[in-house]
Write a structure and sequence with these properties.
The chain is built from 25 helices and twelve strands. The protein has 581 residues and is an alpha/beta fold. It folds into four domains: 10-95, 3-Layer(aba) Sandwich (Rossmann fold); 99-189, Cobalt-precorrin-4 Transmethylase, domain 1, CATH 3.40.1010; 193-274, 3-Layer(aba) Sandwich (Cobalt-precorrin-4 Transmethylase, domain 1); 304-578, Farnesyl Diphosphate Synthase. Strands 1-12-10-11 form a four-stranded parallel beta sheet, with helices on both faces. Helix 2 links the parallel strand 2 (33-36) and strand 3. Helix 17 (428-448) runs antiparallel to helix 18 (454-478). It is elongated.
């Protein structure tokens, strides 16, 4: 597909931090939370926040001691902050750290008697906050004309609105320094803004048309639109996918897509997938059918269930037993049912938050729920035929999977205990999923076996645990913005970007160590070493994640399921051709 999706599109660090803080506050205490003005400049994100009882007001004088207030990402003047701390019950600060840095620079130099010049948009919330820290000695410059209209000033401290166009800032800086040589220049444009603008320019050079996604009131988004248009590239500015005029996009065009710093990921994904579906219509019919089938297999979790069955076959071989059909079928049915139920329960209540595969799943959610219940019933039947012990294990696993999503504590305890369900425990999804897979993929083939290889059981269980956890972490890292927006607390959210990447690297090292040490101590046959071929496959994650269009599509989901299919293929080749050698 001729689509280039910018890596920097979507929430910047400051916006992500503000949304996360706001949702954490209302999760701990469900009382309403207000912001002075919108938390971020994007209507879709505001609608999401309102669904969590987070609203905005324009007049802070109406606040009382009962109110809880969150200072938005753009920051506020210091006198308003002091007033809120006196007037309100609680005040939470979500000011972007880059904005805070600019505020401190302005405050310090204003106290030293310097005049403050702010290059930014007059009336913008961030600029108004910076003027407050200037103590009445601040001036806003938007254009060359504003530089000419400045009064005679002595020593000057010059800063920028953090989302300014870098070239525009430098141009005005030179004009100001020519007129006022005694000027201290602080380039307070945040690094993410500079990267976003630089990447847009690179995309605009390659693309026939650029689509900018973002709120109409977002200053940084409008600046992106201006940059693209100034480069001469046809530019389309939309808030949502519904605004796209698809007839204007042709299959032979290269389409670049980026978004403002306050644009939610689901809005971007919907734009990408709407354009992808539109361009796909012009493809050869066989490509359209194949793509449609693969999409269905992935979003219906059928491919994932099949992968679990294949991995069961590999697990049995690792433990020294030939894989049998019934345990593989049981694993397929159990994993399919649990993932379908988890998908159903994880759907956002507001349909506007749905994107891509979620939309397709939501459209057929009742049919998929019936399929999940049918699969549970069949997995219990399969367990019964394999023996009472296995039936009991499957029944326990099913009940645990259902209890995982049930509310166990009364609403009255919500103020004291945030985690009223097992699924609310931070990071629990990935851990419970890995354990559930280990239960059916490893323990059941082990129990069916007449020869009990306990050492093989230990290493195989550990391998499956790490493989499944690694898959979950990679998906959670990709979907981190959506999870933050929905108030989820996955392992990557808890660890942060650096911690998550370190853990993912550790998972790969553990896969290597488990396979090699399992073979070295005699727990695995030579198949353990052959399965090391999974590691080069997993390293394909890096080039895929570098191509944002593929990374954010079902292609990446299919790639992750492919590791289990690869394990099955290696096992099959070993069983047929190499085992006797």
């Amino acid at each position: 597909m001729p689509i280039i999706l910018a890596r920097t599109a979507g929430f910047c660090y400051g916006v992500r931090r503000a949304v996360k803080l706001a949702l954490n506050v209302v999760q701990k205490d469900s009382s309403p939370l207000v912001t002075i003005g919108p938390l971020i400049h994007n209507q879709q994100a505001i609608d999401l926040l309102q669904s969590h009882r987070i609203s905005s007001i324009n007049d802070p004088s109406s606040l009382t001691k009962k109110d809880r207030v969150l200072i938005r990402a753009h920051g506020i003047p210091p006198d308003l902050r002091e007033d809120l701390e006196t007037r309100c019950a609680e005040v939470f600060d979500a000011t972007c750290p880059h904005v805070t840095t600019a505020q401190r620079i302005v405050e310090r130099h204003s106290r030293e008697g310097l005049a403050i010049i702010i290059i930014g948009d007059r009336g913008h919330a961030e600029v108004e906050g910076l003027l407050g820290y200037a103590g009445g000695n601040g001036y806003v410059v938007e254009s060359d004309k504003d530089v000419e209209n400045l009064p005679i000033l002595g020593r000057i401290c010059m800063v920028s609105q953090t989302t300014q166009d870098l070239e525009h800032f430098r141009k005005l800086s030179e004009l100001i320094k020519k007129r006022f040589p005694d000027t201290m220049v602080f380039e307070t444009i945040c690094h993410a803004t500079s990267l976003r603008q630089k990447e847009l320019m690179e995309i605009a050079r390659k693309a026939d048309v650029v689509v900018i996604v973002g709120g109409r009131t977002s200053a940084n988004t409008k600046r992106l639109v201006g940059i693209a248009r100034n480069m001469g590239t046809r530019t389309v500015f939309v808030e949502t996918a519904d605004e796209l005029k698809l007839e204007e996009f042709r299959p032979d065009q290269v389409i670049g897509i980026t978004a403002g710093a306050s644009t939610p990921h689901w809005v971007i994904r919907n734009v990408v997938e709407t354009l992808t579906d539109h361009l796909l219509k012009s493809r050869f019919i066989l490509i359209r059918i194949t793509t449609g089938v693969l999409r269905f297999l992935i979003y219906s979790s059928l491919l994932l269930g099949f992968s679990a069955g294949i991995l069961t076959y590999s697990s049995a071989s690792l433990m020294g037993r030939k894989g049998e059909f019934l345990p593989c079928l049981l694993a397929f049915l159990f994993v399919l049912s649990m993932h379908l139920i988890n998908k159903r329960l994880s759907l956002p209540r507001d349909e506007h938050l749905l994107y891509g595969s979620q939309k397709r799943f939501a459209h057929y959610k009742d049919a998929f729920t019936l399929l999940a219940l049918f699969s549970i019933g069949l997995s219990l039947v399969a367990g019964f035929f394999l023996g009472k012990g296995i039936f009991t294990l499957v029944l326990f696993s099913v009940l645990l999977g259902l209890v995982y999503s049930m509310t166990l504590l009364p609403e009255g305890l919500a103020k004291y205990i945030r985690q009223r369900r097992l699924m609310d425990i931070p990071g629990s999804k990935d851990i419970f999923m890995a354990l559930a897979w280990g239960m059916v993929v490893v323990f059941i083939p082990y129990l069916v076996s007449h020869e009990r290889n306990r050492l093989g059981l230990f290493f195989t269980f550990l391998l499956v645990l790490v493989l499944v956890l690694h898959r979950s972490l990679l998906l959670d890292v990709r979907d981190i913005e959506g999870d933050i927006s929905l108030g989820k607390e996955t392992i990557p959210i808890l660890l942060g970007p650096k911690g998550s990447q370190a853990l993912i690297q550790l998972m790969k090292i553990m896969i290597f160590l488990v396979l090699v040490s399992g073979w070295a101590v005699g727990a695995f046959p030579i198949l353990g070493l052959l399965l090391l071929l999974i590691l080069p496959y997993l390293f394909l994650h890096y080039p895929l994640s570098g191509r944002q269009f593929l990374y954010q599509s079902l292609v990446y989901d299919g790639f992750l399921e492919g590791q289990f299919l690869l394990a099955g293929m290696i096992t099959l080749v070993w069983e047929i051709f190499l085992k006797t050698f």
